[in-house]
Structure formats: structure tokens, C-alpha cells
């Protein structure tokens, strides 16, 4: 089968950062399904895994996580899917990745693809959808079905992949969304996705939120980095919650959190498959739920650019675009 792989961890400008290779097609066992990959998306985690380091792989390593495709075969323990089903998923960071023609993935972290979307449109969604969904509904404890309607959420770094789907999930839950962006085009993007208020994370966030007439907000999601920690602590309401996806080593003073009895949560969407948690099937359930919301017209894809075909050259370009830190929505690579 065709695959895009690496043997060295090189700057993305290096033509050997990714290589076109041919590998054996794997066979499904246990709960695995074999997916014929039609499209993949590139996330910041892809660029972090590929980031330059001295390691040399003894054999080609395939990375990649987001994918949309069609089930080709199933393992003996599979009950959720059959050959011919269209699926979308974010994979498992501990296993071979999706940048290959055929890919093995555990059925319990896979959802039925939204029927109204193309494979490219669907591939843009799984990793960011799982991240935002778990951040809001599992970590912060927001009610998905509207019991917390009218509460406020500040999404810092809202124009990226996670923020783009996060705005929509928050609006579906009935929240008032304050989204941060830093450029005119990203401000327009988050407003178009449904944000109630748009402010700049390049300026004083506290001042801007207070100018909206809000002294505190009920929930805060940090979807870029923790340099905004002090502002988040200042703005979170007493007994409110902050969730972050940034694996930071920056100082995070906690006195303000203690005085408010506020909570801090970490979101890492690979935790369930990585540790084979008893509830890993929740990712199947949430992806299937969001697919129904998309097909009902209540949530839309966040793809902003599609490159074709899936090969080393286009994978280098997709990584380059993500590494600029200026991409809005998701970058997708489609078709072998």
C-alpha cells in the first residue's frame, strides 16, 4: 500500500521530512477495523510529533491522526461496523498513523461519518471535535443538551481547529461565547461560526471582557497556550472552571484559583485510547452524536483548505501551513 512516512525528524523545509513509501497492508484483529483512507487532516500534534530531533527510525514511521474513509475489513470482535461503512476518527497516538492507504484503528474510537459531508470535509473534524467535546462536557461538566443555557464561556484561541468546532458545540449547548482571535480574517471566521463576542488575544483580555459588561465568566477554555493564564484566573468566576490543551512548562500561580475555589482541567483526547480506559467507547458515541448534529445542519465542517493527493510533497506543505500558527480551521490532504 502507499504511505507517507518519515525516517528522520527534520525541519519541514527539508525534502526528506516526509517520504513516499510502499508498505504491507495490515490485517485487522480483535476490535480493529481496517479503513481505506480517503482523506486526512493535519493538526498541531502532527507537527509536534514530527518536530526535529536526533532520533532515526530503523524503518519508515507513519504518523497522522485525523482520517475519513471506508471500512475494508473487520476483526473478529468488531460489533459496531461492517465492511463498506463510511467512518471518521482521530486514531491513537501510540499506533501507526493515518497517512497510509489502509489503516488499523480500534472501533471504539471511531464514528460513522456524517452522510452530508465529503471525506475531506469529515476528515477535518474528529481530533478537534473530540478535544472540544471532552473539554466542555467531560472536563468542565457543561450540560451538552442545554441545562446550562445562558452561561458564558471564554474561548482563548478560537480560530484554530479546536476553537472552530468548540464555538459550535458551545452554541448548541446554549452558552454565550466570547471568542478570541488576533487578525481581521480570523475574527471574521469565529464570528461566522457563531461567536457572540469577538475580542483579541493580542490585547488585554481582561479589559476587553470587562468592557462587554462581564466581570467574570462561567467557563474558560485555553485553546492556544498558557501565556494567558493570569488573565484566565482573573476572569473565571468563583467556583468556575478552566480547561487547557496546552502542555505547558510555564509558571502557573495558583493562589487566585484557591481563593475562588476554581478548578483547572487538562484535556488530552488521546488519553482514552492510549490508556485503554474502560470508557473509551465514549469517543465512538460522541463522534456519532456530532455526525447527527452535522447532518441536521446544526454544526458544520471546519475545513479551510484541501490539498490533493496524499503524498510527501503535500504533507510537507500541510505541515508548513500548520506550523505558521496562522491557519484558520483545518488543513486537509485528500486522496491516494
UniProtKB/TrEMBL annotation:
Entry GO terms, CC: cytoplasm
Keyword hit for NADP: yes
UniProt keyword annotations, A-Z: Cytoplasm, Metal-binding, NADP, Oxidoreductase, RNA-binding, Zinc
Keyword Zinc: yes
SUPFAM superfamilies per UniProt: GroES-like (SSF50129), NAD(P)-binding Rossmann-fold domains (SSF51735)
SMART domains in alphabetical order: PKS_ER
Major subcellular site: cytoplasm
Molecular-function GO terms, alphabetical: oxidoreductase activity; RNA binding; zinc ion binding
Gene3D superfamilies hit by this protein: Medium-chain alcohol dehydrogenases, catalytic domain (3.90.180.10), NAD(P)-binding Rossmann-like Domain (3.40.50.720)
Subcellular location: Cytoplasm
Enoyl reductase (ER) domain span: 14-333
Family that this chain belongs to: Belongs to the zinc-containing alcohol dehydrogenase family. Quinone oxidoreductase subfamily.
UniProt cross-references to NCBIfam families, sorted A to Z: adh_fam_1
Complex formation: Homotetramer.
Protein name: Zinc-type alcohol dehydrogenase-like protein
Organism annotation: Octadecabacter arcticus 238
